Amino acid sequence: MTVQIGVIGAGMIGQDHIRRLTEVITGAAVTAVTDIDRARATEVASGKPVFCEKPLATTAEDGLRVMEAERAHGRRLVQVGFMRRFDAGYRQMKDVLTSGAVGTPLMVHCAHRNPTVPDSYVSAMTAQDTAVHEIDVLRWLLDDEISSVQVITPRATGKRFSHLKDPQIMLFETANGVRIDLEVFVNCQYGYDIQCETVGEDGLVRLPDPAAVGIRAAGLHGTAVPRDWKSRFGDAFDTEFREWIASIAAGAEPTGPSSWDGYAATVITDAAVQSLESGGRIITVDIKPRPAFYGAAS
Ligand code: ISE
């Protein structure tokens, strides 16, 4: 069976997903592409499984509306494109944490660095567009909920558009008391670099860097740093779509990140933006109780 897919939004990631669905994934065919034509978008989306690129929404209010519409429909239709859950390294980390090999998690140290961002990237996007990946993957890795956030700003890099606060440090606390520090630096210049280390009572587990040949030349020994998210997470995007298409082909509900996860992430990013705009206040995250409709956290 070939799953026919309508793509709404043909921007940069939309185009990359069309390529993936057409050239990489078997069992899928892109049969409609639409961009800003609302009537067409509604027709394409009506009653069908929806893969929504992250974020689900940029505010908690909008995320809640999507979730409530899905619940009113009575069946899970939405999968949100938090593709880190499909990355082999993060999956290994999850297995290690679940096995208990490093003991109860206590602290997580993360960094999310992009070489540069365009002028259109504004300070709120550091949470909404960039840190939202860690927010989702950490909720999933730790099987825990984020309960507060504080955003502080170190000395700003000179290599940024002047309207942007960059870098930013985000400090999260979870319901179980785990402390997470996340450096987001979107003009780091040197490459696309994702780091994550979870420290537990008995040891630590660290996300591997992507496999790359070691080069010794000109008196140095090193490996290349990926240039962008496409090369760093290309395999994760492929796995994400392969598993999504398989669930649709089997007539099953999607098992990846749900609109509940999308909504929870927007509540946390709203709180992060509020903290940033208030000069670093600690903001309590107020997520509604998880509806039984979404089952237990995976
Ligand atoms: C972009 O939208 C992504 O999803 C990338 O993974 C992230 O690193 C980047 O900051 C975002 O703008």
From TrEMBL:
Residues 94-280 form the Gfo/Idh/MocA-like oxidoreductase C-terminal domain. It holds the Pfam family GFO_IDH_MocA. InterPro entries: Gfo-Idh-MocA_inositol_DH, Gfo/Idh/MocA-like_OxRdtase_C, Gfo/Idh/MocA-like_OxRdtase_N, MI/DCI_dehydrogenase, NAD(P)-bd_dom_sf. Residues 46-82 form the Gfo/Idh/MocA-like oxidoreductase N-terminal domain. Belongs to the Gfo/Idh/MocA family. Involved in the oxidation of myo-inositol (MI) to 2-keto-myo-inositol (2KMI or 2-inosose). PANTHER family: INOSITOL 2-DEHYDROGENASE, PTHR43593. Homotetramer. This is Inositol 2-dehydrogenase. The lineage of its organism: Bacteria, Bacillati, Actinomycetota, Actinomycetes, Kitasatosporales. The gene is iolG.
